[in-house]
């Protein structure tokens, strides 16, 4: 998930980000019976630094759930206030650890006010 889906999304957002706005996206990667989801947010801190914030979760999409009449609702693919997804701290931490190494983070991952993990990276990491 980190290398194939989240890292390319971060690079794309960083390339598009300007000091005037924050950009975000939710990316997914499907598997057998589950979908991995990640909400990625990027904002420019200074001319040379950006903040990357991340929250990840898993949506159960197995056949038993679907055949049992309880397929995943669209809300499960979005974080509050628009959805019902709850970030998985361990999963988020593993993906963020990968990003921190690949993007040459200037600090250690830390929680932000929205419950995402955030790191500061050099703008040249994009």
Order of helices and strands: HEEEHHEE
Helix content: 25-40%
Structural class assignment: alpha+beta
Distance between the termini: 18 Å
Envelope shape: elongated
The strand count comes to 5
* Total helical segments: 3
| pLDDT < 50 stretches | none
Query: What kind of sheet is the major sheet?
Result: 5 strands, antiparallel
Rounded to the nearest angstrom, the radius of gyration is: 15 Å
| Strand residues, percent | 25-35%
List the strand order in the largest sheet: 1-2-3-5-4
Mean pLDDT, all residues: 92
Task: Please tag this protein with its features.
single chain, 126 residues, 3 helices, alpha+beta, five-stranded antiparallel beta sheet
What does this structure look like?
This protein has helices at 2-16, 63-67, 89-102; strands at 22-31, 34-44, 49-60, 110-111, 117-122. β1 and β2 (34-44) form a beta hairpin. The protein is an alpha+beta fold and 126 residues long. The longest helix is centred in the N-terminal third of the chain and has 15 residues, at 2-16. It has a 5-stranded antiparallel sheet with strand order 1-2-3-5-4, with helices on one face. 27% of the residues lie in helices and 33% in strands. It is elongated and about 50 Å long. It starts with a helix and ends with a strand. α1 crosses α3.
């Amino acid at each position: 998930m980190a290398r194939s889906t989240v890292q390319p999304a971060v690079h794309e957002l960083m390339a598009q980000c300007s000091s005037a706005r924050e950009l975000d996206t939710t990316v997914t990667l499907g598997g057998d019976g589950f979908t991995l989801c990640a909400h990625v947010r990027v904002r420019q801190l200074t001319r040379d630094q950006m903040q990357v914030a991340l929250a990840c979760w898993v949506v159960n999409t197995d056949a038993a759930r679907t055949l049992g009449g309880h397929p995943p609702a669209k809300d499960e693919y979005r974080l509050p206030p628009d959805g019902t997804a709850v970030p998985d701290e361990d999963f988020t931490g593993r993906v963020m650890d990968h990003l921190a190494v690949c993007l040459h983070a200037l600090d250690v991952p830390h929680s932000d006010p929205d419950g995402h993990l955030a790191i500061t990276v050099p703008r040249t990491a994009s």
